[in-house]
Design brief:
The chain is α/β, with parallel strands linked by helices and about 280 residues long. It is built from eight helices and seven strands; from the N terminus they run E-H-E-H-E-H-E-H-E-H-E-H-H-E-H. The protein has one domain: NAD(P)-binding Rossmann-like Domain (Rossmann fold, 3-Layer(aba) Sandwich), CATH 3.40.50. Helix 4 (about 105-130) links the parallel strand 4 and strand 5. The structure holds nicotinamide-adenine-dinucleotide. Nicotinamide-adenine-dinucleotide (NAD) binds near residues 15, 19, 62 and 93.
């Protein structure tokens, strides 16, 4: 989608971090933006700050893990802007911890917010983008953890899911004039380590997410890397460029490239191991 001026974008998780950075970058490029988030006060702060730059923005509160609330947010977007061209499925949470710290709640919450919201987002907004008759772009925020799995299995599962969903949909949506991009950030300076601030009570207690005091080794490293991470606004500008250029993958930095190379080499080695065998049929 080359020309963003005057186009309408719907961005989830837009009250903080990467989503806010994306909303700022799209608004600066002349998009009209509907900001969506579960955290009402932060959402209003973000909306007011963007409106003060003369951007045409509005805000709608929704828990994106609930399809009905996302549908209501889509209705509000159509009522306010009349059409929509860009969907950014960005809202996400840090997940429920490593092996040994799982609960039903930790899996349900992580899958609901990080993966099912992307499924619902595409199901609800895809036809609306089609109906604009002007093409569009769907960007979903996965993570570098969607290309290479460290610890925190429920998070990895959702992010691999978002990558798989996005890769597959590129083929189906291209003939409709809708590009599909997946954003795979490294460590970005956001509030992701405080994700339980937005844990809906219906999920119950999520183990494995701490306020820092009981962090394991990986969580300590991640907390520090995120505190010193990349500026979310920088990521927003990359996403704006990715939308304009219909990039299939948007990455933010090369820190994890060696780990991903090693993963690919490992997969390749699996084929090499059985290369000359004839499978029994
Ligand atoms: N920060 C990083 O290092 C990093 C790295 C890779 C991927 N990501 C991904 O980036 C995305 C954005 O996270 P962030 O790092 O900006 O964190 P953040 O906590 O600063 O922002 C996440 C936003 O999502 C919102 N949100 C949470 N649950 C919601 C729900 N149920 N419904 C609607 N909104 C909800 C929050 O209120 C918040 O505004 C997430 O998908 C995350 O997994 C982050």
């Amino acid at each position: 989608m080359e020309h963003l001026e005057g186009k309408v974008a719907f961005v989830t998780g837009a009250a903080s971090g990467i989503g806010l950075g994306i909303a700022q970058a799209l608004a600066a490029a002349g998009c009209r933006v509907m900001l969506c988030d579960i955290e009402e006060a932060a959402l209003e702060t973000a909306r007011a700050a963007l409106a003060a730059t003369n951007a045409d923005v509005a805000a709608v509160r929704a828990d994106v893990s609930l399809k009905a609330e996302l549908q209501a947010a889509a209705d509000a977007t159509m009522a306010r802007f009349g059409k929509v061209h860009v969907l950014v499925n960005n809202a996400g949470v840090g997940g429920g911890g490593d092996y040994g710290a799982w609960t039903q709640a930790s899996w349900d919450w992580t899958i609901g917010v990080n993966l099912m919201s992307v499924v619902w987002g595409i199901e609800i907004f895809g036809p609306l983008i089609e109906a604009s008759g002007e093409g569009g772009q769907i960007v979903s925020t996965a993570s570098i953890a969607g290309l290479w799995a460290g610890v925190n299995p429920s998070y990895n599962v959702t992010k691999y899911g978002v990558v798989g969903l996005s890769e597959g949909l590129r083929t189906s949506l291209a003939p409709l004039g809708i590009g599909v991009s997946v954003l795979c950030p490294g460590f970005i300076r956001t509030a992701i380590m405080e994700s339980t601030r937005n844990l809906p009570s219906r999920f119950g207690v999520v183990e494995g997410m701490t306020d820092g005091a009981e962090d394991g080794e990986f969580a300590k490293m991640a907390r520090d890397a995120i505190a010193h991470g990349i500026d979310p606004r920088y990521v927003g500008e990359l996403v704006r460029e990715g939308i304009e250029g219909d990039w299939p993958y948007i990455v933010t930095d090369t820190e994890f490239e060696p780990a991903i190379d090693a993963r690919f080499a490992n997969i390749k080695a699996a084929f090499d191991r059985i290369r000359d065998r004839v499978p029994a049929r």
